[in-house]
Amino acid sequence: MDQNEVLLVASRGLEAHHGLWQWKCTDSDWNGRQIDTVRQLSSLSGHPRLPVVYGTAGVAQEGTLHAWRIDEAGEVALSAASSQGAEPCHLVVDPSGRLLIATNYTSSTLALQPLASDGSFLGPLALVKLSGGGPEIDRQDDAHPHQVFFLDETLIVIDLGADLIREFHVDFEQLGSVAIREVRTTPVPAGSGPRHGVVLPDGRLAISGELGENLLTGHLGCAAADWANVRSTRINGPARSRWERNYPGDIRRSEDGRHVYFANRSHNTLATFDVSSDLPSFVAEIDTTVNWPQHILVRPECVMIAGWDSSLVVALELRDGVPQQVKSLFECEGAGWLHAHRMT
């Protein structure tokens, strides 16, 4: 990381030492300090222009949303409010910086929080209820939005519960829940349980299937049968972390878009696929050396991984776009999310 960046880590847990941590690398040594105590801080996302970072928190309970300003002058907790739903797990700010959208995974809603010019929360939060389901009844009893991001001006929602990729139009002249309108849904193969997605250079999406243990690539608007569909791991048999079944998690792309990196959390591995052609091809799978690799951050020289159950952050050196040997960077209890933050 360059001298103007810090690494923010969501330390997930229930104790006073859990919450938002800031880590800085100087002369190959990592030093960290806690910025705020937050119970079950689960994801982080930055403002498109301001040195403001947002977070979701809470598991199997009413969740919370948080905003911090972090710059060279120090850090300030700008806002904290209820997400008005259970288990918020992801969030994004629109490119204009006016609206924060968060996913309430368990209660099947999108939370819309208007933002002030300084990035703080402005006015009441509104909810948009999603509906749907899939074949795995225990996990797909209803819509369960797991990720949100913008593709140009379109809001993309990855819905694990309904096996759908949802697209929304955002109207900033409207207030409340009518500010977003669903314009299209794209189904993925039933039972895939799509968790996270990335956009590839040719416009295709690469999607991690948490329930189907699969990697999907395809275009928005295509039929479920048209998605390229490959297994996320070469490992067979029972998994090593938390469950006997493998539950893949995060997916990220290389900077040039040729590769995607896919965390097989229950096997504790990182799989690399070449996605430069229509059918993804398996390249390599490496032991991350951490238990439950929850989140991936891609840097020009390496892939960083937050090992939640190991309370470790590690880095895998990239060689021709393929992760190599693992280097342990630092311990941070309950490390569950990584965010590179520029101090401006």
Automatic annotation (TrEMBL):
Pfam families named among the record's database cross-references: Lactonase
This chain's protein is named Beta-propeller fold lactonase family protein
Record bears the keyword Membrane:
no
Give the family per the record. Answer: Belongs to the cycloisomerase 2 family.
InterPro entries the UniProt entry points to = Cycloisomerase_2, Lactonase_7-beta_prop, WD40/YVTN_repeat-like_dom_sf
Task: Report keywords, A-Z.
Answer: Carbohydrate metabolism, Glucose metabolism
Which Gene3D superfamilies does the UniProt record give? YVTN repeat-like/Quinoprotein amine dehydrogenase
Signal peptide positions (record): none
- Keyword Nucleotide-binding in annotation: no
> Which species?
Devosia rhodophyticola
UniProt xrefs under SUPFAM superfamilies: YWTD domain
Please, which domain of life does this record's source organism belong to?
Answer: Bacteria
